[in-house]
Amino acid sequence: MLELREIVKHYRAGDELVRAVDGVSLTLNRGEVVALYGPSGSGKTTLLLLAAGMTAPDEGEVRFDGRDVARLSVADATCYRRAELGFVWQQFHLIPRMAAIDNVGIKLLAEGVSRRAARERAEQWIERVGLAQRRDNPPERLSTGERQRVAIARALVNRPRLVLADEPTGNLDSSRAELVLGMLAEISHNDGVGVLLVTHDPEAAAFADRVLTLRDGKLLDGRVGDSDEPLAADVAAGAAADAAADALSKTNGAHAGAAAPASAPDGARGR
Amino acid sequence: MRPSVLPWLYWLRLRKWPVQEALAGIGIATGVALLFAVQVANSSVTTSVERTIDGITGSSQFALTARAASGFSQSVVRRVQAVDGVQAAAPVVIERASVAGPDGTATVELVGVTSEFAKLNGRLLRSFGGVYGLQFGAKALVMPEPVASQIGVAAGDRMTLQVFGRSVPVRVAASVGRHQVGPLADSPVIVGSLPYVQSITGLGDRVTHILVAPRAGEESAVHAALARIADDRFDVTPSDNEAELIRQAAGPTQQSTGLFAAISLVIGVLFAFNAMLLTVPERRRFISELRLLGFSRSQLSMMLVFDALVLGAVASLLGLVLGDQLSRHVFHAAPGYLAFAFPVGHERIVSFSNIAIAFAGGVGATLVATGRPLADVFSRRSLDTDYRATEEPSEGVPRTVRRWLLLAAAVLTAFAMTVFVVQPSWTIAGIAALGIALVLVLPSVLTGAVIVADRASYATRAGLLSVAASELRANATRATALAATGALAVFGSVAIEGAHQDLLRGLDRFGAAYVATADIWVSSGGDENALLTAPFAVPPSLQALGRSDAVASARMDRGGFVDVAGRRVWVIARGPSEPAPIPSAELVDGSLAGATLRLRDGGAAIASVGLASHLGVSVGGNLRLPTPSGTVPLQLAATTTNLGWSPGTLLLNGDDYRRLWRSDDVTAVEIDLNPGTSPAAGHRLVQSALGPGTALTVETSAQRLARIERLSRQGLDRLSQISRLILLAAAIAMAAAMSAAVWQQRRRLAVLRMHGFDPGQVWRVLLLQSALVLTVGAALGALFGLAGQLLATRWVTLTTGFPSHFSPAFALAGLTFAGVSLVALLAVTAPGFAASRVSPALSFQGD
After folding, report:
1. Do A268 and B467 touch (CB under 8 A)?
2. Nearest residue to A105 via CA among B465, B466, B837, B768
3. Residue B322 contacts by C-beta under 8 Å, 6 or more apart in sequence?
4. Residue of chain A nearest B743, judged by CA positions
5. What is the structure's pLDDT at A257?
6. Which one, A135, B352, B432, B794, has the greatest CB density within 10 A?
7. What is the pLDDT of residue B827?
8. B750 touches chain A (CB under 8 A)
9. B391 near A94, Cβ under 8 Å?
10. Range with the poorest average pLDDT among A187-196, B496-505, B727-736
């Protein structure tokens, strides 16, 4: 379904050209959960953006069902995200003071679905993530775990074939993280949805069917948690990349056009 | 924390939120600019007259002043000079006149002086005479360069002087400029030797004033002796009495413009306050960061106050510069109606107090606007609430708070209405209460509008409306701040402009009733004599017109200005045969029929209600009127509005006036035409009878009405200018604030884009939410503006005594509402378009 071939992606941090992704290839199939594991600055979020068609690789191809998503026009990229993708963020990005059920259904409005129909469809998903009793509560009245479940329901409400999840458990404690990840995995397997899960948490990565470890933009072989050493090194590398990404976000702002090498890699936390 | 750190901390904050700082600065600067410009314009009017008067009167302390333009015998000066204790006594003629040259005409104060005048050491004579050696025997006039330039003459040229309905050719001895005599060159004063001025004005051996300088310590005795000489046939006044009179005359209008300028400053404060509200989440986080770093609340307070002082000082300086330009280019024209009775110059006078008040107002306003951030510093929110927030906080006003606000708004509105009914003198407080009520009611109205929009999105397929409503709900504080900016601007503008329109309608109504009594009007001079106070002798050719078949009748009107109890009162004395001597719509107290009858019988007067109150006379009582024949009692038959002349108005019987003023001169001739003669034909007939060289002006009633309307609009134009500037400032502030708000919203827009909303949809969401905010704000502002108009009209009527009646300015409110909404919406279109193209990738960036 999703195929990344020999992807290379650079970005500029000051005078320095940073190789954010270096020759990465991966595939993701329907009903499969793949975790991209690595420390901050290892290139995980850049890969996510590439998969979403929000930035183009300098080398290589990103294909979804055979279509080169990097070459989509702005309109087609919008359609691609609207029809095929669902997103889950670490920071939830729910709209404050809006009922949970409406937060779930909002995405459907982009498709021109009526408000009433959007609510009806959102209803199914809000039940499915176990929040039927909390459906009318705004995010402020939900726990962090419940917020992320709402976010998952929102990601799935349009029945996407691929869910891109960026550190979805970053703000959750371990028990809530487990619940959320279990839910993602279950939905993936039951509904045939592919999930690309970006995380730097080995426990989160353990929920995936496959774990791909990234370091310095390269895909490594080996399992998560085999030893502490690689992780410590990753953290050090990540700190350097954070600084570079910070500079990038200040220099380029947020205008990561489809063809511009100004994407916001993970770790760009300056804004 | 050392104070030296404060500038650095401010710099840090400025770098973080330059747009917010700029917005706050714009708001304050706008208010300061208006306050400063209005103050300068107001003080320039009175100060220019004071300087002119001071230039003429010099060291004199008293003036014997004629009660009629025809003056009194110059021989009186010998009696004055003979008084023990008089150091100097100078006979003077001061007459309102106009001069005409090839490039136009100008109204001037014609002053005739003798060598005695030099003893008073008045700056005017010292300047004019000192520079050019005014020859007391010369048959020529010295004039200021600006006036000479305005009418297109120079030294040695001839010009035409028009006075008392006569046109006299005169020679310009010299024109003196600012580089020679300083600011006095802006005084509209033309000086000549007394004999020459007496000859060209036809006054013969009569003078209008004797300026008296007593010896030190002899003031009381001299004053008493002068009173005996005056014998109640002319006035003994302080020589700067004219300056007092103009302060009184200009006071009401200046209070009105001052009030509206103050409203603009309040709106400026609210602009600044709103600009600060726009960055509540960011600022809270910044404060939390600093507190986590160990800054105490007092240190943070010191920092905020320092920030406010810097912002206030910079914005106020900017406002002073803007205000300076406003006063030069927009508010430069003095209200024309004051020139009917006073020598108003064109000098722009900026005093230290003008600068100090505007600057202090701006800095003070900024400190007030700091209240919100200070409240954050002292709030009981836990330290890490904002710091650890993972997404934008919900900023809505809680329901219970909204209810309290609504209750407070209801109380304030009730207070405003009570003031209107019970205690009109507190109307300013009522207007302020309405403005505050408007802001308090906004959160509830906006919440209601969002709910309605949300429900409407169910009923229709307008899904984007639902998204827009959600965005507004999520940004409730910002949305309220934006709506409040628009609402207050529309409120202020509708209230001010509505009251202004009410005033104009009242003046127009009186003007129409006044001129409608005749088909053709003959009077002396031009705009400066719009109130028909300049006397002239009726030429025989005009008297002969009465026998023409085209003319049905001709009536002689008299009148002028009379100084009564510290006020320069406008006296209108129409003939006993005048069909409607009292404008019925202006009657305040008394019976129209009874008052008309008593006026025709003589021995009665109709006074404006303010003047009657000032004199302490009620209808049926006697008022004492100083006349050239002595002070006479007249029965007060009724009271009216002041007919547009704020110091006060008196209607007298024309025959009474002729007798008491001992003059056959008239101030206007009203001519009724026979049926079949058109006004245009009548105009031609009268004009040809007077001949080409006449100094009299012939107008049809329509032409005269047009002149009156033009002058009343010019006189009150400053109110319109203030209201337009408030709107302009609001449009700029709102456009900037909305652009900033849209820009701050990009993260959530990026999330929408990530969910598959295309840029067009995101743009529509932005436009919808802006439209919703603007519509609610402007509509509510228009509604409250109408209530404000009710109060402002009442206040203006009470303050100025003008003939004004409230008539709800629905069209104005609608147009202002539509205009503000449209302009701000258009202004947000471009930034909205740019923001809608935000990269979805932005949603992946952290804070």
Report:
1. no
2. B466
3. B29, B30, B32, B33
4. A254
5. 34
6. B794
7. 78
8. yes
9. yes
10. B727-736
B391 interfacial to chain A (CB closer than 8 Å): yes
pTM of the model: 0.73
How many CB atoms sit inside 10 A of residue B136's CB?
16
Distance CA A258, CA A256 (A): 7
B142 near B128, Cβ under 8 Å? Answer: yes
Q: Is B463's CB within 8 Å of A140's CB? A: no
Those residues with Cβ within 8 angstroms of residue B572's Cβ, 6 or more apart along the chain or in another chain: B532, B557, B559, B643, B649, B650, B651, B652
Query: Is a pLDDT exceeding 60 seen at residue A88?
Result: yes
CA distance B799 to B814: 28
Residue B216 has pLDDT above 60, yes or no: yes
Distance of CA A76 to the CA centre of its chain: 20
Residue B217 clears pLDDT 80, i.e. is over it: yes
Chain A contact for B840 (CB, 8 A cutoff): yes
Contact by Cβ (8 Å): B623, B607: yes
Name the one residue in this structure whose structure tokens are 């953006």. A49
Verify whether the Cβ–Cβ distance B757 to A110 is below 8 Å: yes
Q: Which residues pair with B651 in a beta bridge?
A: B572, B606
Beta bridge mates, B632 = B625
CA-nearest of A63, A51, A43, A134 to A94 is A134
Dist. CA A187–CA A176, nearest whole Å: 17
- What pLDDT, on a 0 to 100 scale, did the predictor assign at position B680? 93
Strands B86-101 and B104-113: antiparallel
CA distance B309 to B325: 24
Cα A18 to Cα A16: distance, rounded to the nearest angstrom: 6
Segment B491-505 mean pLDDT: 86
Look at A93 and B457 and tell me if their CB atoms are within 8 Å.
no
* Residue A167 backbone zone (phi > 0: left; psi -120 to 50: alpha; other: beta): left
Asked if residue B620 has pLDDT above 90, the reply is: yes
Q: What is the residue-wise DSSP string for chain A?
A: -EEEEEEEEEEEETTEEEEEEEEEEEEE-TT-EEEEE--TTSSHHHHHHHHTTSS--SEEEEEETTEEGGG--HHHHHHHHHHHEEEEETT--PPTTS-HHHHHHHHHHTTT--HHHHHHHHHHHHHHTT-GGGTT--GGGS-HHHHHHHHHHHHHTT--SEEEEESTTTTS-HHHHHHHHHHHHHHHHHHT-EEEEEES-HHHHTTSSEEEEEETTEEE-S-TTS-HHHHHHHHHHHHHHHHHHHHHHHHHTT---SS-S----TT----
State which amino acid sits at residue B583. Answer: P
Contact residues, chain B, for A102 at CB < 8 Å: 466, 470
Give the number of other CB atoms < 10 A from CB of residue A174: 11
Read off the pLDDT of each residue in A226-238 and give the average, rounded to a whole number: 40
The answer to whether residues B489 and B781 touch, using CB atoms and an 8 Å cutoff, is yes
Q: For A168, phi and psi rounded to 5 degrees?
A: -65, -15
Report the residue from A81, A96, A257 with minimal CB separation from B394.
A96
Question: Who has greater pLDDT, B281 or A55?
Answer: A55
Q: DSSP letter string over B245-286? A: HHHHHHHHHHHHHHHHHHHHHHHHHHHHHHHHHTTHHHHHHH
Each residue's pLDDT tens digit, B446-465: 999 988 888 888 776 667 88
C-beta separation of B636 from B668 below 8 A: no
State how beta strands B567-574 and A33-37 pair.
Answer: unpaired
Residue A249's pLDDT is what? 38
**Residue B554: which H helix or E strand, with range?**
strand B551-564
Name A183's Cβ contacts closer than 8 Å, sequence gap at least 6. Answer: A129, A149, A152
